[in-house]
Amino acid sequence: MRKLKTWELGRKSTEEFEKIAKIPVVVVLDNIRSGHNVGSVFRTGDAFRIEKIYLCGHSCTPPHPEIYKTALGAEDTIPFEKSSSVVQCLESLKAQGYILIGIEQTDSSTPLQSFNIDHKMNYVIVLGNEVNGVQLEALNLCDHVLEIPQEGTKHSLNISVATGIVLWEFFKKLSYS
Q: Which of 48, 92, 98, 134 could connect to 128 by a Cys-Cys bridge, CB 3.0–4.6 Å?
């Protein structure tokens, strides 16, 4: 076995990435203050070819050194938009025909792996603040609320880890089925 060198991975250039088809997924970040977390979401979004990221409320926004440290240039490949209000952002996306999906633990959430993804639909994944999660006003606008099953002693995941799990689930179902 031999580890591949970076040049052997066949990674796309920024220009090539702009031209390839994206999965019909947009990420909305609701008050994510950590630049490291935001940068990780950009990098994960790049890996799974999402359409766009909306940075709402007090979410850290490029240009920012903490974002650069974890995004590693993905802030240049994933389009993003700042919105002062997550509610207004979600209302606008819903009016454009997106299916809104909150990632949160609620009394009516569906396990992530049980959610049926329709290849004809466009999705918004809403992820919330590191401490308080997705605002209730935003959750009430969502068409679905999905939960990542957890069986350990902790009841939450870091926002960047949760994003990776959710985007992988959508990517594999949209790309490989």
A: 134
